[in-house]
Amino acid sequence: MNMRLWSSLFRKQHMALKIGVMLFGLLLLCEVAAHVVPVQRGLQGRYYPNANWNGPPAFSALDAPITLSTAHVRRLTFPTTMYSISWKGWIWIETVGHYRFGTRSDDGSDLNINGQQVVDNGGLHAPREVWGGIDLEPGFYQIDVKYFQGKGADSLEVFWQPPNAPRSVLPAAVLFPLPPPRWRLILAPAISPVRLLLLVLTLGVWGGVLIGHRTSLYQRIRGSVEAFTEHVLRYGLLVLRTARIQMGIGVLLFLIVLLILHGLQVSNGLEGRYYQNLHWDGDPALTTENAAFRLSSLVDTPSYAPQHPASFQWQGWLWIQTAAVYRFDVTTEGFLFLELDDVLVAEKRDNSNVQTVATRVYLTDGLHQIDLRYLPGTGAAYTLDVRWGRSDRSMTPIPRRLLFAEEPDETSLLKRQLVSWGYRGIRLLGILLLAIFGLVILVRQKLVYGRLVQTAVVQRMRKGVGEGRLLREALGSTSVHLLIILALSLLLVFNNLGRGSIITTDFDEGMHTRVAQYMAKTGVWWSLYSAEGVPYYNKPPLKIWLSALTLRLLGDSEFFLRIWDAVFGLALFLVLYFFGRELFASKGVGLLGVVILMGGRDFLLTHSIRTGVMDSLMLLFFVTSLFLFCIRKRHFTRYYALAGVCMGLGALTKSVQALVPLAILVVYLVLTRQHAEFKTRAFWGMVVLAIGLPGLWYVSQIFLSPGFFEVAIVQQIFHRVQGKIHPTHVHGPFYFFQVIYEGFFPWSVVAVPALGIGFWQAIRRHNTQMIFLLTWILTVFIGFSISKMKVVWYMHPLYPALALLIAAVFFWTFRVLKADTARPLLAPLALGLLVVLLASSLSANYERVVEEPRKLPIHLFTEYLQRLQEIPYHVVVYDLSLQEFDHADRYYLNRIGDERVLWTQDLDEVARLVRQGDPVFVIVTMRDYETIPFFQDHLSRYWLAPVYADRLYPKKLILVYNHMAESRWFLPR
């Protein structure tokens, strides 16, 4: 580098640079103080493997606050009964007065201040709370807390109550192993905010300096990089021409190959077992070595296979290289048991919803036995995610190099450690070489491009492209684009549409389907009911009318329940294609926008176009109304009116959410200063149609149905916005950032620079197309972020606009890069990146679509009954009302038929039916099953656990009489 150039740049910074250097120095000083000034807080605990504090302690630890968490963490090596703990240290008293202290413990505990006993809670007893008091002056006092555990459960809580203050847990902030100097207590709390302030100021000053001299800085950095690449090319070629270096490189490559081959031979993992039953019994159907904590390591893509009873087990050894407290987080929907050294450290005894089980365990260095058993739930996709980490570090999957199917010896461990280090070194070397190689290509791309175009391969490729003009013209035609959209829709939207139970794709699907089912059965169309005499006011009727029509004309199946949504999704893609073509005068933008939208996970799979809900039809009207507005210049009055009709029909589908386009249009007209349109009849006609069409139904229901206004208007609109009706969906203002990042990945990453370019074109170039898309995006995002209730699908109306914006920015960027003759490789690189993103997003969604959806227990049960064909059977629902079943259970019970289902509270009637000898399936609650002796005498049973609503409805099971069930789902008595 030319140091004189850098020194001249340094001299030109004047005062700003001096301030930046000074702030940086203060920041370093603050960092040093942060490690020197802080004081340790808590009490020093001594842990004894007996109940009377005798002998030397097993170990010591600094505990803050005073709890039994350290003893529980050490449960692999420290006893869980017959132990004792003594905590000693100092307590800081801020004000004079009478202080009260208390303990709640099982078994004994006591607390002493300066040798004076304040709390006496000794002896063997159940959980008991005892308090005591003492007068204290400001200052430090010695504190001594003792606890012992006999047998049974253990527990300890330590409280205090300062003068004129409520009682609370004794805080760690006032406890110290040694009394610190007074100045440290004052200075320590101020270090963190001062450090943050200095960091912000330093970054701000240096950022301003860099922005102010960005041109000269860029030129100097570019010159330095070019000089570096020149040296790399010169000396690299010189090195490669030297015979000895070539021989050395050959030997190194040979050693690398040997290392890789040896690493393949010593691959690590656990012994995995796959059982075709629900209780890990008998011989496993499959046993494999080198298995990780992933289902794919036992069964290839298990969720693609038909649903059947299965249980999984992983056994082996875990190698701990550093003794520390480790945290294990296991996320699963099924039963789970995790053991370390034959001690159960984590369990989940519920297979009806996805939960994360967390535990902390102190592990010594060396080998530890590990055993994980997993029983999948029913009705949802298999879910098993095992992560671990030190308490002070992030959570990651357990590395396979630390897992062993059999106990290894020390030589094997050393060999594997060397192999691991070798792999790390190879990876770092490879990354470094690739980075240097990529830098050389980017800096010297004109030279590289000139060499590439002279090669025979590139010449033949360019000749083939030139001769393929007819193919390019065919691919650019509208008909071919529509065929591409249709083909992708068949693969991603219609494919595997009818698999899985209705509620396994979305909870609302079961609720809306029940209303449509009742409508088709009774012929009551204008007012909505979910059951006899139970009105349904949550949503407007348009989509429910269509679903009921399908049930009446085409039949009752999952495919026909979702066919409307898939058709509306295809129509939405077609509208978006023409939208992009008209907005940017480019067919490519329209096609690319549609394909990008198909690659969004949430838009395709979550509460949208593959689900029997309202969103697909509402989104079609949403996008169509905005499209009609954009082409309103062709026929001002007609297209304004059609836009109003679309908004009105959308509101008749999903209430006020479909009226958001009205806000988008108003904001856009204001930003582009088209105020004259507010004075036209066409605009106000659109407003009247948008509000009037749904108003016809809403007003009639207000008069026809008492309570409609309170539920449909007050609760479903105002209380929803305030988060009162679904408190579990109340999130902070930044919730949708994470939703968009995860639900629209990988396009959410590209969206950041695309939005930046879009804002630049909208502000600096007054690009009205970008202004329109940005208004659309920001109105949806800000509007729903203001609402306290937030769910993932509230961002669905944003994704079509974001897809079009990314497509338009890509075409603009590609044209700019293609015209840049100084950097001829950037345009092909951008095109290659686009192909990679399209392939990855579409293939990921295709894998999700072809995955076999899980079926609810009630769905599997009704399918089993269908196989009985002409055999007479009865289904008895004992002492249960319809409201004690969730929407999916009601829907599938309706499929059985009223003539075969008996609802009764008479146990004698059930007994008479069983004595007749026909197969009888009795649905009972767990309470009745455990308390009524008659239900103990059955041949087999079947668990009926709802997946999504387990906390709302009682647990139930099905008892089988007079029938030997030919299914492994039915467990023998």
Task: Describe the protein in words.
By secondary structure, the chain is an alpha+beta fold. Helices cover 50% and strands 18% of the residues. The strands form six sheets. Strands 1, 2, 3, 5, 6, 8 and 11 form a seven-stranded antiparallel beta sheet that branches. Strands 12, 13, 14, 16, 17, 19 and 22 form a seven-stranded antiparallel beta sheet that branches. A six-stranded mixed beta sheet has the order 26-25-27-29-28-30. Helix 5 (214-240) crosses helix 7, helix 15 (558-584) runs parallel beside helix 18 and helix 18 packs antiparallel against helix 19. The chain starts with a helix and ends with a strand. Mean pLDDT is 82; it is low at 301-306 and 946-952.
Biggest β-sheet strands, sense, barrel: 7 strands, antiparallel
The helix count comes to 31
Enumerate the spans where pLDDT stays under 50 for 5 or more consecutive residues: 301-306, 946-952
Number of strands: 30
Alpha-beta content class: alpha+beta
Helix content: 40-55%
Whole-Å distance between the termini? Answer: 82 Å
> What is the total number of structural domains?
5
Which band does the percent of strand residues land in? 15-25%
Task: Write a concise synopsis of the structure shown.
With 973 residues, this protein is α+β, with helices and mostly antiparallel strands. It folds into 5 domains: 3-37 and 184-222, no CATH class; 43-179, Toxin - Anthrax Protective Antigen,domain 1 (Toxin - Anthrax Protective Antigen, domain 1); 270-408, Toxin - Anthrax Protective Antigen,domain 1 (Toxin - Anthrax Protective Antigen, domain 1), CATH 3.90.182; 478-850, no CATH class; 857-972, 3-Layer(aba) Sandwich (D-Maltodextrin-Binding Protein, domain 2). Strands 1, 2, 3, 5, 6, 8 and 11 form a 7-stranded antiparallel sheet that branches. Strands 12, 13, 14, 16, 17, 19 and 22 form a 7-stranded antiparallel sheet that branches. Strands 26-25-27-29-28-30 form a 6-stranded mixed sheet.
